Amino acid sequence: MQLTPLHIDDVPTLETERLILKPLCLDYVSQTYVDWMNDPQVNKYLESGGDYTLAKLTDYLEEVERSPKYFWAITLKESNTHVGNIKIDPIHSKHLYGEYGIMIGDRKVWGKGIAKEASQRVINFCFIQLCLRKINLGVLAQNKNAVKLYEKLGFTLEGNFKKHIAFEGEYVDSLRMALFNPSLI
Predict the structure, then answer these.
(1) What domains can you pick out in the chain, each with its CATH number?
(2) Most buried among 43, 47, 56, 85, using CB within 10 Å?
């Protein structure tokens, strides 16, 4: 079974009722994407952001194309508007787990269930098509909305790294959460 795609064409397009998840690539270079990455509300809990340019975004997406992974642009079906990204990377093929990450950049769609809908589709893909046994994630304890989303998706707390991450001038807790494939338990 191939767990890590060798080519961008190996990453499937995924659909939900309102969304199309398309492989993230250079097609998504835009000033809007750069603006998300420089928006303090969008990148508040991200490890990156705040210093993006079109050139930096282009370099990043060129690297994504050179080393494809399960990484999707979240687009709205009705308008084909790119509103964020979601990924499972890295995937550990020996132990059959992957690391989840999501960013909803378009603040106009915050609170509308887009993150949950995209996440459920990607989780299904990982458990059914990739046969992963577990999906992991890391989140700052202060990111209450994200923690609430992950709990709704079924993730449970596996660990709390006390005062682990520098955030807004202090060291804060970093939570590790996981979701097990119910068909493999």
Answers:
(1) 8-133 (3.40.630.30)
(2) 85
Alpha carbon distance 163, 180 (integer Å)? 27
Instruction: Look at residue 5 in the predicted model and tell me its pLDDT.
Output: 53
Digit-coded pLDDT (tens) for 39-98: 999 999 988 878 899 999 999 999 999 988 999 999 999 999 999 999 999 999 999 999
Helices marked H in 15-85: 31-38, 54-66
Residue 150: what residue type?
Answer: Y
Within a 10 A sphere around the Cβ of 149, how many other Cβ atoms?
17
Residues belonging to the chain: 185
**Which SS3 state, helix, strand or coil, does residue 55 take?**
helix
Instruction: Report the distance separating Cα 73 and Cα 36, nearest Å.
Output: 13
Pair of tokens at residue 68: 């494809």
* 138-181 pLDDT tens trace: 999 999 999 999 999 999 999 999 999 999 999 999 999 999 99
Angstrom distances, CA of residue 97 to CA of 6, 108, 143: 18, 32, 23
Handedness of CA 115, 117, 120, 124 (dihedral sign): negative
- Amino acid in position 44: K
